[in-house]
Amino acid sequence: MLDLTYEPPAPKVIQGAHEDWELVIGLEVHAQVASKAKLFSGASTLFGAEPNSNVAFVDAGMPGMLPVINEGCVALAVKTGLGLNAAINLRSAFDRKNYFYPDLPQGYQISQLYHPIVGEGEVLVDMAPGIARLVRIERIHLEQDAGKSIHDMDPKSSFVDLNRTGVPLMEIVSRPDIRGPEEAAAYVGKLRQILRYLGTCDGNMQNGNLRADVNVSVCRPGDYEKYQETQDFSHLGTRCEIKNMNSMRFIQQAIEVEARRQIAIIEDGGKVVQETRLFDPDKGETRSMRSKEEAHDYRYFPDPDLLPLEIEQSFVDDIRATLPELPDEKRARFVTEFGMTEYDASVLTADIEDAAYFEKVAAEAGDGKMAANWVINELFGRLKKDDRSTSDSPMSPAQLGAIVRLIKSDAISGKTAKDVFEIVYTEGGDPEVIVEERGLKQVTDTGAIEEAVDRIIAENPAQVEKARSNPKLAGWFVGQVMKATGGTANPKAVNQIVASKLGL
């Protein structure tokens, strides 16, 4: 936010059959590290490859195969921690999380439980002007992903694709600071935005590169404040985890559904059982997946094949020196540098590619505020209609910047600029050449405009009398002049000359 003073949003309140309830939410976000190689092998992380084609011996759990840490993944995890204002642990360690599943060929997952690479941090989630939620990050640890079981290809058999096995993940664990479905979605969105700016995760939720496990519980009004004072979780309700959410919309729906399920159980005199659940968007319900495991259920122990990971402070400092301008900083700069509203700055910085596109347009146009207006209202609107993004826009920043520059120099009017925009968007070409060759240049010659005004006044004496008795009707003459000049006359000059000729 531009102003560091803000109020937290009110918690979501759900009315039960007998009393009101508040939500308490924490998230574990799994972000795939933007690495071409896996965490402990050189196998590719390319999405969409033939099943079981990106699998090294160590990923497949072959005997005698030892993991080797990918230094690039370590660097990107550190960079993520720095981007989230988090503490970097110079010494961390890997543990084995033991469980059996068909797509986990080693019989365990290499993760970090006791000594994560990144410690406590924070994310400021803007909800409205002056309203924001500060969400505390508990930890970020590195771990390897599991494979994928496929159950819908054959009525009698299941298949396993191990391409994802060993893919590097950062698990970003929040504190239970989120108080509503909209906040949860906004938090994931803000996290995704920061990761994309940092270049540490592409944030592609459709491919599973960013997904969230959502912990939901309910409590009575006032209990959360007791938890804040004491940090005693007994003041909060029993939480249930909703696994593998990869849609902002579904995250909100699942939280609402799960909260109401828990409220109904409690008000009927039952107890919520801590468990892992899945959300079914078609049925609008969550269903039990398994009882919630605790750390001891996984028999965690230090991985004997990997020494503790020790990094130098200089390694961290070098990464800190490469940090890009992050979303909140960029938004603040857009407001101060270009004089735009905070809302417009938020729209332009929501995506790193959009922000980069806008800055190129502003540089070409020489007017950031006007450039912002055209990028947001004309370009974004057209791209949304065509289901495209700035990365595959048929109009380059240089072309749009040239259109804005033509408006700024009074070479064309705003109306004509929209016609030029349409031509360039659909046909391509240099806006300046198009304006010249198609005779779209704005008429600024006051003599030519006066001649058109005099002719129209002479041809319409009755309308002249009406306009003199009601000056608002002078707009009719302006419209006629613009029509007579094919829309190329300078509107400001036309208004001035019409008013002068009519004696208004």
Tell me what the structure shows.
With 504 residues, the chain is α+β, with helices and mostly antiparallel strands. It is 39% helix and 19% strand. The protein contains 16 helices and 16 strands. Helix 8 (352-365) crosses helix 9. The chain is elongated, with a radius of gyration of 30 Å.
Strand content: 15-25%
What structural class should be given to the helix and strand makeup?
alpha+beta
Given as residue ranges, the uncertain stretches (5+ residues, pLDDT < 50) are none
Sketch the major β-sheet: 9 strands, mixed
> Can you count the helices?
16
Average pLDDT reading: 92
Anisotropy-based shape: elongated
List the keywords:
three-stranded antiparallel beta sheet, nine-stranded mixed beta sheet, alpha+beta, 504 residues
Secondary structure elements and pairings:
Elements: E1 13-15, E2 20-32, H1 71-83, E3 91-92, E4 95-98, E5 108-111, E6 121-128, E7 131-144, E8 148-150, E9 159-161, E10 168-174, H2 181-198, E11 210-219, H3 223-230, E12 240-245, H4 248-267, E13 275-280, E14 285-291, E15 301-302, E16 309-310, H5 313-320, H6 327-338, H7 342-349, H8 352-365, H9 368-385, H10 397-408, H11 414-427, H12 431-437, H13 446-459, H14 461-469, H15 474-484, H16 491-502
Parallel strand pairs: 12-13
Antiparallel strand pairs: 1-2, 2-10, 2-11, 3-16, 4-5, 4-15, 6-7, 7-10, 8-9, 11-12, 13-14
Short description:
The protein is built from 16 helices and 16 strands.
